[in-house]
Amino acid sequence: MEPDKRDQGEFEPLDSCDERILAVINELHKRDDPMPSDLNERVEFVLELEAALDARVASVYRPKELTLVRGDSELAVNQGDPTSITFDCETVTVMVTPRPSALQEIRLDGWIGPEGTYAVELRSPQGTRRATTDETGRFVLEGLPNNEMFQLVIRPDEALQREGLPAVVVTPAVRL
Predict the structure, then answer these.
(1) How far apart are CA 131 and CA 124, in angstroms?
(2) How far is 121 from 49, CA to CA, in rounded Å?
(3) How far apart are CA 141 and CA 122, in angstroms?
(4) How far apart are CA 71 and CA 82, in angstroms?
(5) Cβ distance 85 to 173 under 8 Å?
(6) What are the structural domains of the chain?
(7) Burial group, residue 82, by CB count within 10 angstroms (0-12, 13-18, 19+)
(8) How confident is the model at residue 65 (pLDDT cuts 50, 70, 90)?
């Protein structure tokens, strides 16, 4: 015999059946999509950067609308250049395109907006590499190891900081 559910509204208190369903859903989440073990450290890292260094943490930008790109023989609808990675925060946008340059090495072409001069630091397990942009925000880093994680630290020059840009912008780590 089934319980009568006609009078049970959406605002009724949870019963034991609801609690069992929620427990099963909770277990599924724990098994199939667990919380990252270092989530607390990531949040603390971001908060410390933003508070202590006047830094902004950029996020990976994923376009929401489709763009047209030229294919081999005709125009095709695509999600932009699949090899480019764009990072974005409130005031700074960074786009990088990794390209093979030698055996197991990558050349990283980058552009930072708004235009101006920036110090660029690439952090990877192999160490730190530095570059400076030209006045248009373009930079190149060569001889980078293929298939390695990297993170960019961007420091606008003083003139850009006076215009309101943060002192430091840090990107999330991504794989070349």
Answers:
(1) 14
(2) 16
(3) 8
(4) 13
(5) no
(6) 39-175 (2.60.40)
(7) exposed
(8) very low
CA separation for the pair 36, 38 (Å, rounded): 5
Peptide bond into 34 cis (omega under 30): no
Q: Is the pTM of this model over 0.85?
A: no
Question: Which of 7-16, 114-123, 138-147 has the weakest average pLDDT?
Answer: 7-16
Query: What are the Cα distances from residue 24, in Å, to 17, 20, 29?
Result: 11, 6, 9
- DSSP class of residue 2 equals P
Are 170 and 49 a contacting pair, CB within 8 Å?
Answer: yes
Distance CA 149, CA 106 (A): 12
Name the nearest CA neighbour of 60 among 83, 92, 89.
Answer: 89
Backbone torsion region of residue 11, taken as left when φ is above 0, otherwise alpha when ψ lies between -120 and 50, otherwise beta: alpha
Report the 10 Å Cβ neighbour count for 6.
5
Those residues whose C-beta lies under 8 Å from the C-beta of residue 116, and which sit 6 or more positions away, are 133, 135, 137, 156, 157, 159, 160
**In the numeric block, which tokens belong to residue 146?**
């293929």
DSSP assigned state of 87: E
Q: Is the pLDDT of residue 78 over 50?
A: no
